[in-house]
Amino acid sequence: MKRLDYLTAGESHGPQLTAIIRGVPAGLYLSADYINRDLARRQQGYGRGARMKIEKDTVQIVGGVRKGYTLGSPIALVITNQDYQVWREQMDPEPGQLDDQRVVTRPRPGHADLPGVLKFGQRDARNILERASARETAARVAVGSICRRLLEEFGISIFSHVVNIGGIRVNTKGLDFETIRTCAENSDLRVARPEVESQMKELIRKAKENGDTVGGVYEVIATGVPVGLGNTMNWDEKLDARLAYGLMSCQAIKGVSVGMGFDVADNLGSSVHDPIAFTDDPAERERLVRERGRGPSGGFFHLSNNAGGIEGGMSNGEPIIVRAVMKPIATLMRPLQSVDLKTKDSFEAVRERSDVCAVPAAAVVGEAIVAFVLAQAFLEKFGGDSVAEIKANYCNYIEYLDAY
């Protein structure tokens, strides 16, 4: 079986976004409605801009699926950009003249504009910003949704919540995973403590009034992950490294941590590392799965999860917990100084329609990225050409763990 991978194409204001994912096994039940639920979640959140009122993202599955089941061939996805109708004259792929009045020569600080035009030899920054835009993440959410659907077949669940916006932190100590998930899904900012949400909204509102933006931190949690995904033998196969790579590839993400993350620097080893225990009681094993979100590990478990479910680059059976830091969006309504590419004179950077805070949306994108990385590692461990074959391989592994 070929390695699970994908490719996205399309510009922010072009005709459409396109994604092709290959390596998905045959026989997986999949519908456009399932993917559309995640696309809708990506568009929600307090502090989003006008673009979310224009686009109502829905996916067309145009290859790789028949009558609701994957064929084992590459899956092709299309998401139409409604805003293209406004931008058709400027973004038409066919040959033609550009409107000189709409050429972008004032790069925005914090964006890909300046390094992009210099790297690719462009005079119009739109040729860079269109692809660098976070609009591309809609295609990635669609891909991640397919991966989520695959992982569900094996009891793996992924969700996210926001833990910090603009320095206002959410303390989830004492809350179980289901409570965190439910509260986050019912929150405009994906936070698990409703009493904190109003403070965050006020911060975002004030930032908007001042022409500014707000960043934050989100957390993604994956439960039911079996021990042994990833590889300690080769640097590029370590699961935590791959998760960090994937999350850092998302627009505006500036940092990633696993488990305790940077907090390990403030603690001694005795309070960082997770003690190991064992039980051969089936009822106790079931309780650990039900209450702590553990995956199969043959009765071995940890008394804490400071490692965030990954040791030595491999999943250890505990829930995988990763965090990503999102910078404040670089497009400001009160723009910073820039330099005109053509005249070299100083100007205020060009304004583009933008969000004030997109941390909740980034959390949904983070789910998709984590789903892809875990699905990729899962298929490397248990891969086959069909879901039935993979399930047989997986069941054999569970039996091996139980007999260890």
CATH superfamily annotation? Chorismate synthase AroC
Low-confidence stretches: none
This entry's quaternary arrangement is single chain
Q: Taking Cα atoms only, what radius of gyration do you get, to the nearest Å?
A: 22 Å
**Count of DSSP-assigned helices:** 12
The major beta sheet can be summarized as: 5 strands, antiparallel
Name of the CATH class = Alpha Beta
Coarse shape: globular
Topology as H/E string? EEHHEEEEHHHHEEHHEHEEHEEEEEEHH
Strand content: 15-25%
Measured between the Cα atoms of the first and last residue, the distance is 28 Å
Can you summarize this structure?
The protein is an alpha+beta fold and 404 residues long. Helix content is 35%, strand content 19%.
What does this structure look like?
Helix content is 35%, strand content 19%. It is an alpha+beta fold. It has a single domain (5-403), classed as Chorismate synthase AroC (Chorismate synthase, AroC fold). It has a five-stranded antiparallel beta sheet with strand order 8-7-9-15-10. Strands 1-2-6-3 form a four-stranded antiparallel beta sheet. A hairpin with a 6-residue loop joins strand 16 and strand 17 (346-348). The protein is globular. 42% of the residues are buried. The mean pLDDT is 94.
SSE layout and pairings?
Elements: E1 5-9, E2 16-22, H1 32-42, H2 51-54, E3 59-63, E4 65-66, E5 69-70, E6 75-80, H3 84-91, H4 113-120, H5 126-132, H6 137-152, E7 157-165, E8 168-169, H7 177-185, H8 194-209, E9 216-223, H9 239-248, E10 253-258, E11 276-278, H10 282-292, E12 300-302, E13 310-311, E14 314-315, E15 320-326, E16 337-339, E17 346-348, H11 359-382, H12 387-403
Antiparallel strand pairs: 1-2, 2-6, 3-6, 4-5, 7-8, 7-9, 9-15, 10-15, 11-12, 13-14, 16-17
Helix pairs in contact: 1-6, 6-11, 9-11
